[in-house]
């Protein structure tokens, strides 16, 4: 996404959003904005943990998402390139030619016609908070990524969706348990993607076990949860008392929370406590290898993820090893022997299959 700040000194380009290194591209023109509103927007986003790219040199274009800020300029002037923009475009045409500048004009017309935010010096702080809230909301709508090819997932999603029953106003906490590599995380991601549009506030926290074992593990987990659920500024005192901050948020709003790979009940106590914390209609999903860490006072529905059936396992292996849904006759017997080694675990099937992808002889 790009937060665009346009002023009368030049033309603002629209670099595409990219999520691998940056969350937001803060694009602007004019030194007068760099040290004023652009600086303030940048610092406000940074405080919320948003990775902000402030200049547009060297960016590749990608997916567009524009939040225009019209800084001391009329949006209609931007759209039609009138007044301060007219002379600059005429000068650009002399240097770069009509063909190039016509594309710039089209881009400017698009930005000018996009519903944006008109700067008011007396309300700058309010505008910045609104921009931060909008950015955080858009970031939270980004679904989590799934493997390109899955087998047996749809039926599992349907089973758990029945347990979650999003039409009910009750608070549902579903514990998904099963051995490592059986597909719990994939199921949790698919459920999150299916449910995310129903909830204004949502959070998917991966690797709970790993993060918990690190420095300030539980505190770090609490801060991640608070940050993803809240679009408002949380005070230092509230952050220091993570449980109070979490309860204050989840008691007022319907939330969707996924905690992936929990291995200790203390992690649950620190993050989701018990059902009385939550506003009606909230949904919490917990995945774990250990059924015993799912306390009855919190979890009211259980789902065990079992190994894939033989035909499903063969299909998944065949896709990763041969890029087809069933093995050729040449490799059928060997593929069936490999099935017996994996125990129907999707992760093992993917690893074995991917390793054998470039092998085309029985001996290999």
From TrEMBL:
GO terms (BP aspect): defense response; signal transduction
MF terms (GO), sorted A to Z: ADP binding
Coiled-coil annotated residue ranges, if any: none
Record domain AAA+ ATPase: where: 170-304
SMART domains registered for this protein in UniProt: AAA
PANTHER family associated with the record: DISEASE RESISTANCE PROTEIN (TIR-NBS-LRR CLASS)-RELATED, LEUCINE-RICH REPEAT-CONTAINING PROTEIN
Protein name, as recorded: AAA+ ATPase domain-containing protein
